[in-house]
Amino acid sequence: MTLPQSYLQMISTVSAEGELTMELVEKPMPELGDDEVLIRVEATPINPSDQGVMFGWASMAKAASSGTGAHTRLTAPVSPQGMGVMKARVGQQLPVGNEGAGTVVAAGSGDYAQSLMGKVVAVMGGGMYAQYRKAPAMMCLPLKDGHTARDGASCFVNPLTALSMVETMRMEGHTALVHTAAASNLGQMLNRICAADAVELVNIVRKPEQAQLLRDMGAKHIVDSSSESFKADLVDAIHATGATLAFDATGGGELASNILAAMEAAAARTPGAYSIYGSVKHKQVYLYGGLDTSPTVLNRAYGMAWGVGGWLLPNFLAKAGGDVAMRLRARVADELKTTFASHYTDELSLEQALQADVVARYYAKTTGEKFLICPQK
Amino acid sequence: MTLPQSYLQMISTVSAEGELTMELVEKPMPELGDDEVLIRVEATPINPSDQGVMFGWASMAKAASSGTGAHTRLTAPVSPQGMGVMKARVGQQLPVGNEGAGTVVAAGSGDYAQSLMGKVVAVMGGGMYAQYRKAPAMMCLPLKDGHTARDGASCFVNPLTALSMVETMRMEGHTALVHTAAASNLGQMLNRICAADAVELVNIVRKPEQAQLLRDMGAKHIVDSSSESFKADLVDAIHATGATLAFDATGGGELASNILAAMEAAAARTPGAYSIYGSVKHKQVYLYGGLDTSPTVLNRAYGMAWGVGGWLLPNFLAKAGGDVAMRLRARVADELKTTFASHYTDELSLEQALQADVVARYYAKTTGEKFLICPQK
Asked: Could you tell me which residue ranges the Enoyl reductase (ER) domain spans (chains A, B) (predicted)?
């Protein structure tokens, strides 16, 4: 097989003048080291964690696209506040796309690299929204026979995140979980994991159809934040499960605060003397996403034993150590087509992923939608 | 010595109708168990942690007092939002005053209780804003010879809190501290501890005269939040000290968020590739007080490795264990007149502490002011 001389790579740049640009740049085919392989990227998903790098704090409601084919560009203005947050990335061409899968089409001279030639592998290496990607052979997860790039495209971020939420719960002494944006691809995986591991899970969704989707999956505790009885329902569900740990994908607004208040109200149902400083059991909400970029507002009406903080998969894995990471990865490979199956509603070419109307759809994606980029299209 | 038949005790009550009342109630002299003592309370400080119990979320700007002597009452309206937060305490007569000191004037038949007769002891037992207080003998800390009730009145809350901040820093892997409302009695103790233990401390104050007070004490890093260069000064001080842990007494508003942003900006000064997910070292702000009852607003412009949470001395001591608590207590007794000396600007009778004009002063206390209640006045 003859490889082309160059390939297209999607990058995101914030200019000093306050404009975000996403475009395709032409890159020369890379040289391979002995222990490196070249992957022809065939399938790479758009995860919420990618959107943070792609769009940052730009005003996406004002995004526009121009050009066609390899010259398609997306631009969006950035407010002064957004520029403050993104100061450190001004002028840097950031490659985007955390994970993906494809076929190894070239390999260095090392034995392991050579053994991957022609294999379908998945990799979490960044810069995956590209036609080709160089990667260390050791970083590649060879898929089992019969599994396609499409099957393995999402086998790192969401599966490891969902598994790590349950690991975090155990490591920090909690016994049940609350999850927001719970009908997401990640949320569905988490439901399957919790069902298999007998962990009680409170699912918070934003729409009745999301509640229905989870109910159809067999989820037991589902609370709809669009319902008038949301806060009372949440207290009931938290009381029923004893959850004192939540993972929130939205990040902004009052949701984290409302979850902590519900945990406190649930704790107060257990008879005991009133304490002015609140319940003693630590209540924690981790913000692992930023679907809502507005500030997090905490009213602190839940005593003193609470915490809110950022949560990021690589930081967790670094803390948990290599053995845990290996154990989780092995489970993903074993259960790729069951627990960790991803369903895609749209397949986009690199160019399509830069068109303003398409971007608007995946930026504000609705129930069950999940977008896949197929760079060979 | 003949004891009276009854004594006065200060209580705080929130009615279902939305009114806070603080008043003195007459209580019968308690019966003593074998291992209990009766303390004639002579000195008991008004700490910020007491004010939480005294006033809760009432609108203190609208407080009014009525009556005289033992019939002095203070009332203040409570907003619907405040009622929501204080639901669990509606109708409960809460005794106030966490700590204090006085003379043991009666004792049960137990040997240890008897050994305390006539001694000056300090105790952290709650309900100390009273003429008398029954306490388990084991809970009493006998002061060294020559130390008065006034010397020992504040020997638990602030000394143990300041020491526990440094313990928390060590337990959680940080190497320097940031402290807000840093000119407070507690803040001054923390400066003395950090100087003795060679721990770098960034002091955040709100006024130039508070900065001067700390400068006169020999504090090295002082940042004034009323200064135009506050944010830049804070980054400089955090960069100089490497602090990744802060204790914030104010709780509300944007201060915690600004501290985290400054920690992130300080981390970004260390050369290295830009990471979209921010610096990897965990940055933590503990809210240990609520001088500002408005919501805590977090703009999350500091990556993913951060946390904000409540921090409460009893919860910390429970987690740290008995040995740590004993070690800290022994240090307080040894250094009561030096490191842990408290200076009081006002001495109030129980009645005075309920007068609206006096309450207004200690509710919004300024630099260096610290109020002591002397229930025998």
From this structure: 18-298
User: ipTM of the assembly?
Assistant: 0.83
Gap between the terminal Cα atoms of chain B: 18
Q: Is residue B323 part of a domain?
A: no
Whether residue B328 lies inside any domain: the answer is no
Best to test chain A binding among B254, B285, B300, B302 (most A CBs inside 10 Å): B300
Q: Are residues A161 and A261 in the same domain?
A: yes
**What is the CA A165 to chain-centroid distance, rounded?**
12
Say whether both B169 and B150 belong to one domain: no
Picking from B317, B334, B363, the residue at the C-terminal end of a domain is B317
Tokens (6 digits) for B67: 């009556």
Q: Does B39 touch chain A (CB under 8 A)?
A: no
Assess if residue B325 is contained within a domain.
Answer: no
Question: For residue B65, what are the contacts with CB-CB under 8 A and spacing of at least 6?
Answer: B72, B73, B74, B75, B354, B355, B356, B359
- Inspect the interface and report whether the beta carbons of B310 and A307 lie closer than 8 Å: yes
Residues B173 and B90 in one domain: no
DSSP string over B193-217: HHHHHT-EEEEEESSHHHHHHHHHH
Are A301 and A362 found together in one domain? no
Q: Do A300 and B298 touch (CB under 8 A)?
A: no
Say yes or no: A15 contacts chain B, CB-CB below 8 A. Answer: no
0.90 exceeded by pTM: no
Q: Measured between alpha carbons, how far is A347 from B74 in angstroms, rounded to an integer?
A: 68
- Strand (E) or helix (H) holding B296: strand B292-298
Query: How many C-alpha atoms does B363 have within 13 Å on its Cβ side?
Result: 21
d(CA A79, CA B299): 14
Looking at beta carbons, which residues of chain A come within 8 Å of B276?
Answer: 52-53, 56, 89, 94
Helix (H) / strand (E) containing A28: strand A19-28
Q: Which residues constitute the domain of residue B175?
A: 157-317
Mean pLDDT score, A268-291: 83
Across A294-303, average pLDDT: 95
List chain B residues with CB under 8 Å of A315: 280, 304-305
For the stretch B237-278, pLDDT in tens is 999 999 999 999 999 999 999 999 999 999 988 766 557 788
Residue A13 and residue A148 in one domain: yes
Summarised one tens digit per residue, pLDDT across range B318-368 is 999 989 988 998 899 889 999 999 889 899 999 999 999 999 988 876 556
**Statement: residue A274 has pLDDT above 60:** no
The structural domain count of chain A equals 2
Same-domain check for residues A140 and A15: yes
Where residue B206 sits, what CATH number does that domain have? 3.40.50.720
CATH assignment at residue B49: 3.90.180.10
* Mean pLDDT estimate for chain B: 93
The predicted-structure confidence for A48-87, as pLDDT tens digits, reads as follows: 889 888 998 899 999 999 999 999 999 999 999 889 888 8
A162 plus A212 within the same structural domain: yes
